[in-house]
């Protein structure tokens, strides 16, 4: 026969076992919740780290691209400045040679060639007033020659006007028709400035490679 004391002991044992089971379940639930939160926290942290890394990478790439872009602009400016420098040097030498050319026998043939091309363009405007721009020196020296060449196969009322900017060649204008043809050496050089600069720079590069 089970005594009251034994029943009480058995009751406490069962109670303890029941509480141990509940405690274990609660601890397990807490452990699961903690594990879930920890995993979520780690996932959020990993995501945040990746976002920070991606932002830093994009920022670095942007800075690099900006730096390269600025470098290209600086290099381009330096190249243009160098071209301009050597263009000025070239033009100084060219002007020296031009003075010699204008004084040479070949210059008259050069004028004749220019006049032929101008007359071909304005021949349909015969009998109009034709204003010819020349340097002061060329007017004194070649005005009769120019007039004769123009009217050799056409008929214009020709007058002359000195232009201090013209160093050689000539320009022709028919004001009533709003026509002007600039075949001065100045205009030819200006029209071909970029080509001349590029040619000079290419020659310099060849010199660097050969030197």
UniProtKB/TrEMBL annotation:
**Which GO molecular function, any one, fits this protein according to its record?**
proton-transporting ATPase activity, rotational mechanism
Q: Which GO terms describe its cellular component?
A: proton-transporting two-sector ATPase complex, catalytic domain
- Asked if the keyword DNA repair belongs to this entry, the reply reads no
List the coiled-coil residues: 35-62
Q: Which UniProt keywords are present, listed alphabetically?
A: Coiled coil, Ion transport, Transport
Q: Which InterPro entries match?
A: ATPase_E_C, ATPase_V1_Esu
For this chain, the family text in UniProt reads: Belongs to the V-ATPase E subunit family.
Q: What is this protein called?
A: H+-ATPase subunit E/Vma4
